[in-house]
Amino acid sequence: MARLPRLVIPDHPHHIIQRGNDRQLIFRDADDYVAFLKWLREAAKMFKVSIHAYVLMSNHMHLLASPSDQTGLARMMQWVGRYYVPYFNAKYQRVGTLWQGRYKATVVDSERYFMMCSCYIELNPVRAGIVHSAADYPWSSYAHHIGLKSDAMVTDHALYWSLGNTPFAREGAYRGLIDQGIANADIEALTECTNKGWVIGSAYFKERLERQSKRRVSPAKRGRPRKINGENSNGEK
User: Fold this and answer.
1) Residue 175: is it exposed, middle or buried by C-beta count within 10 angstroms (0-12/13-18/19+)?
2) pLDDT at 221
């Protein structure tokens, strides 16, 4: 079956995963993390992508980001790779690709899943057993969200601002969300949707996106495909 084009919805959050080829390391020391973040920050500004949350792990990375147009995400990721991969290869005397294929991405239902996705990203080092607390990991946006430092990479989403009327209230509320953790079912759903490019959201949200994009945004159910604006979900009349 042909792979569907990546679905990008301008001004809407997307969860993005980029992995190292064969799960190899893409960051080996602190300078690598710093260099990557520098180029990512420049690219996000250049291509008008708002990054709301991120984490850089040793062999993969996660972003929660909203592009202002349909091409911004791809152009941002390509631009960063154009600078970071040659840097990494020259530093460690290697050749060839660094990434495991193209990056994975899914559209996120803001109202229902945005905060969960942000916490999911920043809790990655805890789930991996690298640190005991998200605050102990230096290469994520968590410190920004709880007020430990200001991170120029991060553009706060309106839903983060809605957590409280003051910075102290927002930071405390966000810390509370992290402390609650994330249900295993939500972790599995977000991971699967991102890896397969399916939208994560409510049934209403998915139906609305299908009508807007005239394409499937979730796995097809068995039986005759349901129609979307006079066409079935496979694009047939």
Assistant:
1) middle
2) 67
- The values of phi and psi at residue 34, to 5°, are -65, -45
Alpha helices in the chain (DSSP H): 30-46, 72-91, 110-122, 124-127, 142-145, 158-161, 167-180, 184-196, 203-213
The conformation of residue 226, written as its DSSP 8-state character, comes to: P
Q: By three-state DSSP, how is residue 59 classified? A: coil
CA distances for 40 relative to 16, 77, 231, angstroms: 13, 8, 40
Contact 26, 20 (CB under 8 A): yes
> 62, 89, 57, 95: which is closest to 77 by C-alpha?
62
CA–CA gap between residue 189 and residue 213 (Å, rounded)? 22
112: how many CB neighbours lie within 10 A of its CB? 14
pTM, full prediction = 0.89
Q: Is the pLDDT assigned to residue 223 strictly greater than 70? A: no
**Which residues, at least 6 apart from 69, have a Cβ–Cβ distance to it below 8 Å?**
10, 48
pLDDT, tens only, 67-107:
999 999 999 999 999 999 999 999 999 999 999 999 999 99
Residue with tokens 């008008």: 48
Q: Under DSSP, is residue 104 helix (H, G, I), strand (E, B) or coil?
A: strand
Does 225 or 204 have the greater pLDDT score? 204
Are 137 and 131 in contact, with CB atoms under 8 Å apart? yes
Residue 111: pLDDT band with limits 50, 70, 90: confident
| Strand pairing class (49-56; 104-107) | unpaired
- What is the spatial distance between Cα 224 and Cα 72, in angstroms, rounded to a whole number? 35
Q: What tokens appear for 51 in the block?
A: 């990054």
